[in-house]
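Escalated from tier 1: zinc ion holo job.
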Amino acid sequence: MTKLFIENVNLIDGTGSETINHTNVLIENGKFKSVNAAAAPHDAEVVDGRGQYMLPGMIDAHVHMMTEFKPLEERLTTPFSYNFYLAQQHLDRTLNAGITSVRDALGSDLGLKKAIDDGLVTGPRMQISINALTITGGHGDGYNYSGTVTDLMQPHPGMPHGICDGIDEVRKKTREMLRAGADVIKVHATGGVSSPTDHPKFTQFSLEELKVIVEEAQFRNGVKVMAHAQGLEGIRQCVEAGIHSIEHGIYMDDEICGKMKDQGTYLVPTLLAPVSVLEFADELGMSKAAIEKSEEVIQIHKESFTRAYNAGVKIAMGTDAGVFKHGTNLRELELMVECGMTPMDAITASTKTAAECLGYTDTGLVKEGYTADFILSKENPLENIGALKAHDNIQMVAKDGVIHKNIID
Ligand SMILES: [Zn+2]
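Tier 2 regenerated the structure:
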């Protein structure tokens, strides 16, 4: 039996409850055994927490682990398999940032998830969607006016192409993603910022098609559907179809926020996506269209988030990392707070609520019996939420009770 005893930490447990000051946490066999342990068992490894702030491992409900935007020329000259080796860096950066679980919104296949689960490579725990369902000419169709196709992820064994149109094709495509090992189905319900031939406001799948996708996933032990949905009409259709989470949600009005609250639909805001696209436009090789669309939506997106938060919509932290640099994820909390969220709610969105969005029942809190995923932050994030984005401030990261990072100084 492995025992780990973290002494003298200030605990922010993820439930939204007040900080428990100067406590000791005991971990046994990868689970939290006690969050107010009196003394270390004689056979435990002891870590001096030095009064740092312990939080649950953070959960990012929207990432793309296999990709990181690069200028087109670089993408075209990168050997296919190189990307799999490169993914180890993305995984390491994510884990070092304090993210211990992610939901992959397209691009990661079952092999990557299994390699992490089996300990072949290190990385956050993953839920995968394989590839996103998308309409011909929609967000996710890499077809360019020249006829050249520049898909974000090349289809390969275990990674079916996502394009499908009409009732029969969407049903079959949902089945293909499930066959490939999808934990969650991803659909592109509207246009997007990065796609070459559409706009965030464009509605893509029909209500009928969305309902079939939701139904087909539901048949398989209640698999949920996450929808890239930015324009209002597309969001409305998603909510009506029973989609589990709205990704991005740029153009939400009061009415749709009310419906989402009533129905329990999650919002995964990804406020960091357009911000990063603009900051790193040159380095990432963003197209002129993507830059223009990001500029157009950035303010509206923030207002939409604030509206949803004030309306009481369930918000699960998600970033779209991969569209920009992996490992910068926790900037999202600072952006959420800038848009009116309290620091405690931003932490809850990144732990408890994100865990609920992913369907976890024993991960996402520092609580007895829960999976021992945690981080130590030198600074109090309730006083400075921006501290969480600094890698030297996140001094310890553990997943399943195993310490992956320890730079306690
Ligand atoms: Zn995305």
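The longest helix spans residues 288-311.
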